[in-house]
Amino acid sequence: MIENQDYIFVPKIDVNEGITSGTVSKAALYCSKNYFYIIPFSSVNIWNQSDSKFINAETFIKDMNSRIASLNIDEFQEYMRNFLPAERVYHVHTLEKFSVQVGFFIFGGVRIKKPGEGVQVMNVQPKAKRLAIKNFYGLK
């Protein structure tokens, strides 16, 4: 697979999991033409001040990045779906909302919404990476 053609990798994002959940996650993001995959490093719930760390995220990403060029898209997608829980896999074509705002600083981000769930907002930096995602999916 070729980066920015078959997939996009963002090593660091912040995900606001939705106002009602009160959870913000630090994560990495892989995008294929059909899926988003969010690999969380840690999550903080602001309502009850809990903080969760996820093991193996750094190891998984290091391993994936070292072998992704040798994978085809089907192998990559199967590998990601087997590693991640379903709530961290987002099928692009079934999302109720999917938008990318390329604007400057806080005026940019990726917004997604699975059917029956709340809107999640991903802070993706830098602006060039948001533009790459927007172009990758052919969004206006």
Descriptive report:
Strands 1, 2, 3, 4, 5, 6, 7 and 8 form an eight-stranded antiparallel sheet that branches. The protein has one domain: PH-domain like. The longest helix is centred in the middle third of the chain and has 11 residues, at 57-67. It is built from three helices and eight strands, in the order E-E-E-E-H-H-E-E-E-E-H. The chain has helices spanning 57-67, 73-83, 127-136, and strands at 7-16, 23-32, 35-45, 50-53, 89-91, 97-102, 108-113, 119-124. 23% of the residues lie in helices and 40% in strands.
Task: Determine the N-to-C terminus distance.
Answer: 25 Å
The CATH superfamily turns out to be Pleckstrin-homology domain (PH domain)/Phosphotyrosine-binding domain (PTB)
CATH topology: PH-domain like
Indicate the CATH class.
Answer: Mainly Beta
Average pLDDT figure: 89
Task: Compile the SSE list and pairings.
Elements: E1 7-16, E2 23-32, E3 35-45, E4 50-53, H1 57-67, H2 73-83, E5 89-91, E6 97-102, E7 108-113, E8 119-124, H3 127-136
Antiparallel strand pairs: 1-2, 1-8, 2-3, 3-4, 3-5, 6-7, 7-8
